Amino acid sequence: MLLRCPISFTPPLGKPTPAQQRHAATAVSAASVFSISDESLSSRGFTFHRTIENLNLDSLNTVFAAVGFPRRDVEKIRVALEHTDAVLWVEYDKTRKPVAFARATGDGVFNAIIWDVVVDPSFQGIGLGKAVMERLISELVEKGISNIALYSEPRVLGFYRPLGFVADPDGIRGMVYSRKSKKI
Amino acid sequence: MSITIYFAGTRNQKISRLKVRFWESIRAGILKNNTAQVIEPPSAAEEEDILPEEFVMVERTQPDGTVEQIIFSSGGNVDVYDLQDLCDKVGWPRRPLSKLAAALRNSYMVATLHSVSKSAGEEGNEQKKLIGMARATSDHAFNATIWDVLVDPSYQGQGLGKALIEKLVKSLLQRDIGNISLFADSQVVEFYRNLGFVPDPEGIKGMFWHPKY
């Protein structure tokens, strides 16, 4: 009985109900209109990338460290990126370095989780984080992925909410395994 | 009485066999017929021991002599039609078979429970059915997320779901995946808490994009 309810959420098949059609329409339109256009960003010296080609992992690691992530082994980062479904990063043309980044893992059809959303502190506040997120979400929606989730630190819930994210919908809780808390 | 555990590969390819005795469980087993015993691989408490890809989790003998084994496997050997039948049994909405197959292929680890029944005296006459599954997606380095945990309703309430998740988590930890996460419906938060999962650690919240709720 405990396991009756699914953990993953996928839309039921068959003819969509009017409510589902409205939902789908909202989702698609929300995904395809970007707050800041590509042209606007490129005119300010920023370039979007959708692959890890030309991404300097040491520079990326430096951005991670700058926002307070624990320092991770570059080779492990490479493995993680090679097994990531979608990547979106912004290059600052003047320095050729990454200044914003986000990636999503998943099963490619039903579920995706967004990880490692970062903006270099020197470039925060100008909309790069939002720009990266909107494009990443759009890419996932275009692939047909209907369940897009992430884990948010409490202080950035306000960043994700305007992008369309809801915390604990219907009482669903994000949980993480902790060796220390294991009772068995 | 000894318990046989098969290591690696399929049940038909016995690469090595380890006979183990569990005195407490044997004593209890000898006292009663038809006892379902949960068989733990030796030194299950030590995380350093490699968990075999496939092993017998439970073995029980019915009064008519039929022997039923519940077999755990992390090898991802799932027939997508069997999976769809199982999803139907637990009442999940139907998903296209091709997408189910793709989701399994794209998962980092797929753990299953199969029931194999052998009638007494009938050699080679085995009935095998899928009775549980859980899968995890991962970036192969840092994070894994568990999805689609299900156990056949007629096999629920026996601790099989718990064992399934424990073994899946252990397999992931052995592959050095440090962050194992999942999203739990409110009714199953306690179930996962008892397995070592913590909700909202350090206030970190699960969020969904335009959820249908």
Can you summarize this structure?
The complex is a heterodimer of chains A (184) and B (213). With 184 residues, chain A is of the alpha+beta class.
Strand order in space, largest sheet of chain A: 1-2-3-4-5
State Rg of chain B.
18 Å
Low-confidence stretches of chain B: 1-35, 41-47
Distance between the termini of chain A: 21 Å
Fold blueprint:
The complex is a heterodimer of chains A (184) and B (213).
Chain A: H1 18-32, H2 38-43, E1 46-49, H3 57-66, H4 74-82, E2 86-92, E3 97-106, E4 111-119, H5 128-142, E5 147-152, H6 157-160, E6 165-167, E7 173-177
Parallel strand pairs in A: 4-5
Antiparallel strand pairs in A: 1-2, 2-3, 3-4
Helix pairs in contact in A: 1-5
Chain B: E1 3-6, E2 17-20, H1 23-31, E3 37-38, E4 54-61, E5 67-73, H2 80-89, H3 97-105, E6 109-118, E7 126-138, E8 143-151, H4 160-174, E9 179-184, H5 189-193, E10 197-199, E11 205-209
Parallel strand pairs in B: 8-9
Antiparallel strand pairs in B: 1-2, 3-4, 4-5, 5-6, 6-7, 7-8
Describe the structure.
The complex is a heterodimer of chains A (about 180) and B (about 210). A five-stranded mixed sheet of chain A has the order 1-2-3-4-5. Chain A has a domain of about 120 residues: Gcn5-related N-acetyltransferase (GNAT) (Aminopeptidase, 3-Layer(aba) Sandwich). Chain A is built from six helices and seven strands. The N terminus of chain A is likely disordered. In chain A, helix 1 crosses helix 5. Chain A has about 180 residues and is α+β, with helices and mostly antiparallel strands. Chain A starts with 17 loop residues before the first helix and ends in a 7-residue tail after the last strand. The N terminus of chain B is likely disordered. Chain B is globular and about 55 Å long. Chain B has a seven-stranded mixed sheet. Chain B has a two-stranded antiparallel ribbon with strand order 1-2. Helices cover about 25% and strands about 35% of the residues of chain B. Chain B is of the alpha+beta class and about 210 residues long. Chain B has a single domain, classed as Aminopeptidase (3-Layer(aba) Sandwich), CATH 3.40.630.30. The longest helix of chain B has 15 residues. Classes of the chains: A alpha+beta (about 180), B alpha+beta (about 210). At the A-B interface, helix 1, helix 4, strand 4, strand 5 and strand 6 of A face helix 3, strand 7, strand 8, helix 4 and strand 9 of B. Strand 6 of chain A pairs antiparallel with strand 11 of chain B, so a sheet runs across the interface.
